[in-house]
Write a structure and sequence with these properties.
This protein is an alpha/beta fold and 307 residues long. Helix content is 52%, strand content 13%. The termini are far apart.
Amino acid sequence: MDTAVSGAAADAAPSDDRAGAIGVIGLGAMGEPMVRRLLGSGSRVRITGRSPRPALVEAGASWAATPRELAAGAGAVLSMLPDLPELEQALDGPDGLLAGLGDGELLLLIGSTSSAPAVRALAERLATETQGRVRVVDCPVSGGVDGAEAGSLSIMLGGSAEDAERAAALLAPCGRPVHLGPLGAGEVAKACNQLVVAATITALGEATVLADRSGLDLDALWTLLGGGYAGSNLLESRRDKLVRGDDSPSGIARYMIKDLGFAADIAEATGTSPALLPALRAFFDEIVARGYGDRDIAVSRRVVAER
């Protein structure tokens, strides 16, 4: 018998306990508040990471020293790691998630913003290597840290109806999960979301510069326009930053380059000739080239002003 599998079987929690627990890997700006929401709902949560998280353990989470231990004690694992390369590192090797599978099954929830074709390819590989015992749902989120803390995230699900139903039940404490289609549909939806966000913050930054140079009261302007068709959740969350010229980090600008790249891949795959997407990709490339990639997306005001 394979030593990794037999060891995992020996370490695994009782089947009922494992099936009812959710593991979380990727305890960064989004992952940590999502864990707190899950704990607050009474979910049994196991966590792992590069360093211990005593505050989360004190809040009720169970610590797993390795991804292997995480999978051995949870029937579902949510990955809030940055992208698929980091997830694949956590999957493979003697201490990886797959080594902790034993004879059980695992529902892998991919919360990163990633390529839809790459998510499908990973799911196919995992299904082949585990004889179908690992199933995948993509579940990227929108709403930022504020939404994660409030439990109001928009959660975009892609996968089979059965798997998406289970994913929705598990993730409901974190926001509103909606099944949008087959595997990869969540990632397509997130790319569409990021296209709208990029276009909106670019327009808001540009309009702020126009208004400021014309002598308008910016606070009064955005308070007024926020009540009309120009209003949006993004304006509400970034209004003060735009008014003050504050682009201290919250939603990191350089991440948009990857997201818009995924949108471009979808445009190519669907035979779509986009009007805004090329300009937005060029603008966010410019933001990074100017050294502002680690600033908040509200840096759009600064970059327009400097041109």
